[in-house]
Design brief:
The complex is a heterodimer of chains A (113) and B (110). Chain A is built from no helices and 11 strands. By secondary structure, chain A is an all-beta fold. In chain A, the strands form 2 sheets. In chain A, strands 2, 4, 5, 6, 9, 10 and 11 form a 7-stranded mixed β-sheet that branches. Chain A starts with a strand and ends with a strand. In chain B, 0% of the residues lie in helices and 57% in strands. In chain B, the strands form 2 sheets. In chain B, strands 2, 4, 5, 9, 10 and 11 form a 6-stranded mixed β-sheet that branches. The model of chain B has no long low-confidence stretch (mean pLDDT 94). The chains are: A mainly beta (113), B mainly beta (110). At the A-B interface, β4 and β5 of A face β5 and β10 of B.
Chain lengths: 113, 110
Amino acid sequence: EAQVTQNPRYLITVTGKKLTVTCSQNMNHEYMSWYRQDPGLGLRQIYYSMNVEVTDKGDVPEGYKVSRKEKRNFPLILESPSPNQTSLYFCASTQTGGIQPQHFGDGTRLSIL
Amino acid sequence: DQQVKQNSPSLSVQEGRISILNCDYTNSMFDYFLWYKKYPAEGPTLLISISSIKDKNEDGRFTVFLNKSAKHLSLHIVPSQPGDSAVYFCAARGAQKLVFGQGTRLTINP
């Protein structure tokens, strides 16, 4: 079954404590991205990656890092989380160059206290 | 600078009637438009899409209309069913990424 898997699904943590949200896809897709969803703002892209070792900033990259060492994995790293990063996060993947839809994970709800 | 806007945060429709969700965009370089449906505790899933070279695409109960001169996109659902209750996001593709609207929460009343 084609899927994008995010972990954890829920996390409550404190300001400044580094955390990583993992994302893995089993479709051999080249393009992966991270979004955050906030009320009244919809989905905003944080970072994207067009292939292994190729990453670029989206619309709201401040406070986040990513890496793409393998095609299937695209972790989102918060080095020093702050309360304004409390949000619902989605990882997505799609085949570059096509018009296939992006496949989304089920989301990670982060609360930074 | 919101390039894709859904000005109605919520919409309530009677079961069996037509639901019309609207979306406006500002960037004429967008080449592809999509509507996503999202249930609670799940990721968005693609519902229907349309290329900028077309003005209509239909898939069963769902039809998307694109008016390029007005930079306006709409999704029609007819007849509306209780299972259509969800948040709907429109999105536009440009420069290797999707830009999303704020979402509209659709509630179908029995």
